[in-house]
Input
Amino acid sequence: MNKPEFDQYAARYDRVLGEAIPEGLNEDSYFAEYKIALMAARLGDKKSARILDFGCGAGRSLPYLDQYFPDAELWGYDVSPASLQIAALRTPRAKLVADWNALAGTQFDAIVAANVFHHIPLDQRQHALTQCRDALADHGQMFLFEHNPLNPMTRWIFERCPFDADAEMLGLKTALALSRQAGFRSEQHGYTLFFPRPLAFLRGLEPWLKRLPLGAQYYVQMSK
Output
């Protein structure tokens, strides 16, 4: 059996990603944190006792899940064992698994998939999202973040990133269709990440711009 694709990038994931992003736009910690901060803001006072990072890779989101949800039980799932070894060093308290069957019977109050689904083959995406829905507790919430293919800079970075070579972007309309097909009860969505570092002082305006298809990424919040 071949090793998972991301095993080859596990030890140098951050460096390869950084090299794909122009210097003026490269904000490693900001890119990793903003998704979890947005998720926490949208959940508000809703208590999440157990959270899953679906496709957690080398664990870039896990320290921020730990920061924003200090009382939650944290889990991470990824098909790359080599990546999980690095994730374990980043957030030792997280429970990490490479076999989806190991999660059987475990219910999550929230699931986040941060830039994962463009790596999943087209014919497997609905199944993967349905698996996530089934793993949610009643009234659980899933947050899917993806690159916005309508943003030229996002496409330029995507096309020069080595581990995105065989990936295929999915636009917001496709993500919303997948949500319906997976059986989610309702969804909310918006575009985000509009302003690069030189314009960081404008980031407070981003929630007001979420309907403009210009952000570098988008999110879909799905309810079971």
